[in-house]
Design brief:
The structure is a homodimer.
Chain A: H1 5-13, H2 23-36, E1 41-45, E2 48-52, E3 60-66, E4 79-81, E5 98-100, H3 104-123, E6 131-137, H4 148-155, E7 164-167, E8 175-177, E9 181-190, E10 194-195, H5 205-208, H6 210-218, E11 223-226, E12 229-232, E13 234-243, E14 248-249, E15 252-261, H7 267-277, E16 283-290, H8 300-309, E17 313-315, H9 322-327, E18 332-334, E19 349-351, H10 352-366
Parallel strand pairs in A: 3-6, 3-7, 7-18, 8-17
Antiparallel strand pairs in A: 1-2, 2-6, 4-5, 5-19, 8-18, 9-15, 9-16, 10-14, 11-12, 13-15
Helix pairs in contact in A: 1-3, 2-3, 3-10
Chain lengths: ~375, ~375
């Protein structure tokens, strides 16, 4: 019987871990592994924590999850509720079924599963059918330069090598295959300052951005089929800023755009798509580019993982670090508790039944149940 | 022979006086008046400086100017140049004809004229044909609550009472009659946060602002005739801000709009005009409202000032504190050195010939030349 995964998730939510502020939660993870999974090699690199079995198996499974969350939105505190929210009457309520709070879905539920899996690999090491690496890493929610996996691949590639990588991003316990690419650009619009009572002497940079904003707001993104999976693309203005003073025609405005694109083409093509919408921009600078990853469903280990557990498969719409593993030649997929559609929303939550289900699939795959 | 007005203006530009940071320039003004115009009553209220003759004349002229400037735009340092910029060849250049720098036009040139006028009223007090008040006041370039004249009218109305008020805002030595009203509102657009890979789960607040922005950018403002003068209206987005993180659909965006309207209707009407363009706004809040002032050309003192000096008259497009004097029953007009169309631009400047001309008109009107 594994420990109470919902309670462990609540403990993890109660430790704030905004990107670049993961020290407290890394301390918690490291201490818990030292206490409950001492036979695993545990390595800390910055605030990244890696724990590995070394039982000499031919194959190694890596299970990874990021420690950080997006900024809080009045949801800092974990709150456990019955499932009355899901259409059942009071008579059907089971106390403690759902857990709300920042990171419940993305992805402290997954971290709880990973910790518990490492403890089982320690306690039942004789039953392992492959070696296990768990990787808790920093700064997945912000720009690429800070990403803990990027650092580990660059500086300690042996710690993150494996035959299959499973990222515990929220998928609702589906296999979400591959991932869409993500491209963030900043467009600058330039004008000429003037007194706002005589705007014809200047050129309003915010007004100059109106066509680009309208183009993006009106853009109907496509759905693209790859390996039989339908990837639904998107484009969003995620930041807009401009202005000098209430009586000054502004000479500069900056618009940040995030584009998600199917694993059917490269980032250069995505950039060309976005640039075509940015009518009137003075410059377009790439802030972050993360390539898409193909679904890779024909890979033998992925096929075994899906087939043995009879898991449902769908495309991953958000970018995840599966693309990083794929680009380093390691087959990878997303599989974790939590509804991906509520990630980054104030009301994100995770359900006990999904935590238990994800744990059972992974524990069975490595042989400990 | 008055002192070198261009050199005095340069001295005033060299003292930074961003709104709410006018202490240094108020100290300079107060010390100079104490030294050079000691017979005037000089009163300091905060960083406002008022100096008054008390010769018992039936009529009193008030000349006012604000001490503050908008933020610098790489033009902090005063720079005197010849007039080659104005199409003359090198052989025609006269060294020291033009002065560039923050506030040259708006309105440190006017302050130099006021200081010099006060000195003449001291030195030649026997020749005065009316009493003189000079008012150097703070925070004209920012929101109404900070405006020095507002404070003086509220707390020391006797210090600012007069039979005619002349504001030395830049008018190119024209009489600029009345002034347009100014209305600043903040429109908020509200959405629902979501992961940017699944924007259909949320509602992008920046996208929601695109129609309002397009409406304003496309709006062709009217020209309105009052007392035979043509007031050219305008509407500008002066600030726009929204965004949470590069991978989050933003749930809030704020747009600030400045509307300038002819002295033909009130601020409620102006607000209705603006609100009609703000399609999709969740709320519209008035940040600042300054009523328009009618031209008042039939007033006897204004007619005398214009007629005696044979001055050219045009409408004032920017809001100025003439509206405040008018609303307190004091006839008022704008008359000062500097081109109003370059106020608040990086390249603002003032010419020696205009400083001298404005000084001569005012000195003649009070009787000291």
């Amino acid at each position: 019987m594994p420990p109470d995964l919902l309670a462990l998730t609540a403990d993890l939510i109660a430790i704030p871990s905004l990107s670049l502020k993961e020290t407290a939660i890394a301390d918690f993870v490291e201490a818990r592994l030292a206490e409950r999974a001492p036979s695993l090699d545990c390595i800390r690199v910055g605030d990244n924590v890696i724990a590995r079995t070394n039982s000499g198996h031919e194959r190694r499974l890596l299970v990874g999850g990021h420690l950080d969350t997006v900024p809080a939105d009045q949801n800092e505190n974990p709150r456990i509720e019955g499932d009355s929210l899901f259409g059942l009457g009071a008579a059907d309520m089971i106390e403690g079924d759902s857990l709300f709070g920042l990171g419940a879905a993305d992805m402290k539920g997954g971290l709880a599963v990973m910790l518990t899996l490492a403890e089982a690999a320690h306690a039942l090491s004789a039953r392992l059918r492959l070696d296990l690496t768990v990787v808790f890493y920093v700064a997945e929610e912000i720009t690429e330069e800070h990403n803990g996996l990027r650092v580990l691949f660059a500086e300690h590639p042996n710690l993150v090598s494996a035959d299959l990588a499973i990222l515990m991003e929220p998928t609702g316990a589906w296999v979400e295959a591959g991932c869409q690419g993500s491209l963030t650009v900043e467009a600058t619009f330039t004008g000429v300052r003037a007194h706002s009572a005589r705007p014809w002497m200047g050129d309003n940079a915010i007004h100059s951005a109106s066509k680009a904003l309208a183009n993006i707001a009106a853009h109907n993104s496509d759905s693209v089929i790859v390996d039989g999976l339908e990837y639904r693309e998107s484009i969003q203005v995620v930041h807009f800023e401009g202005g000098v003073a209430n009586n000054v025609v502004p000479d500069s405005a900056r618009m940040r755009i995030n584009r998600r694109f199917a694993p059917a083409y490269d980032t250069e093509t995505a950039l060309a798509q976005v640039s075509a919408l940015l009518e009137g921009a003075t410059s377009v600078v790439v802030i972050n580019e993360s390539p898409a990853a193909p679904p890779n469903l024909m890979n033998p280990l992925i096929a075994e993982f899906i087939g043995t557990n009879d898991l449902a498969v769908r495309p991953k719409l958000g970018w995840t670090d599966v693309a990083r593993f794929t680009s380093h030649g390691i087959p990878a997929l997303n599989f974790g508790p939590g509804n991906p559609e509520i990630a980054h929303t104030r009301g994100e939550f995770v359900e006990r039944v999904e935590l238990d289900a994800c744990y059972a699939v992974l524990a069975r795959f490595i042989g400990v149940i």
